[in-house]
Amino acid sequence: MLKPTLSQPSPSAWEKTDETLLWQQFREGQTDAFQALVQHFYRELHFYGSRFTRDSDLLKDCLQDLFLDLWTYRSKIIQTNYIRPYLYKSLRRKIYRELMRHSAEISNEDVTFDDVSSEEITAEQALIRTELSDYQTARLNALLAQLSDRQREAIHLKFYAELSNDEIAEILSVNKQSVANLLHRGLSRLRESWPSLLSMVAGWLLGELFSN
To answer: Is the keyword Repeat assigned to this protein (predicted)?
Structure first.
């Protein structure tokens, strides 16, 4: 049904006003706008979803269901300027439901936000804004594995998806201060473990935590 490519621009390549207009046109039933919406968000949603499951078929099904539901219920979906949080949260819920179908012991708090191997630029590489050697990447991944799932997810949403703390709070169903705490603790631990890597951007990073 949907044939999105994985070579779309990064989130920062589009202005939010463009996304809002596209969302409005999609809600009005314009099929071209809907296809453009799929193309625009598929890549980052796929990457985000891949951090919860290594089952590519399950992830593709969840993405298909997400966009199918959007089109089916488009007339009932509200106009919003917070499109990305809406889509992230919706995909998150669908993945959780599918994972919980296979394990009665899994809850929303238990599902792992994994650091799977990928050819994509990782959230952590976007975070430090530099090219990493294989050794540095492996070392950073090892440090990230010591963080909580929520801390890793918050870092991903902040520095890969480029969401505000308010938007992250909506996705994680927590308050803004909780998001700031997650980011602060996660980044502080990275900085303490590897000060030479983060020293150049530490001030900027900590400023970003409470800026919006």
So the answer is: no
Domain boundaries, the chain: 11-102, 123-209
pTM score: 0.70
Class of domain 123-209: mainly alpha
As a whole number, mean pLDDT of residues 8-30 equals 74
11-102 has CATH 3.30.1360.200 classification: no
Supply 150's token pair. 């929520």
Q: Residues 84, 163: contact at Cβ < 8 Å? A: yes
Positive or negative, the CA dihedral 165, 171, 177, 180 is negative
Amino acid identity at 21:
L
Query: What would the 3-class secondary structure string for the chain be?
Result: CCCCCCCCCCHHHCCHHHHHHHHHHHHCCCHHHHHHHHHHHHHHHHHHHCCCCCCHHHHHHHHHHHHHHHHHCHHHCCCCCCHHHHHHHHHHHHHHHHHHHHCCCCCCCCCCCCCCCCCCCCHHHHHHCCCCCHHHHHHHHHHHCCCCHHHHHHHHHHHCCCCCHHHHHHHHCCCHHHHHHHHHHHHHHHHHHCHHHHCCCHHHHHHHHCCC
| Whole-Å CA distances, 48 to 87, 194, 195, 207 | 11, 25, 27, 24
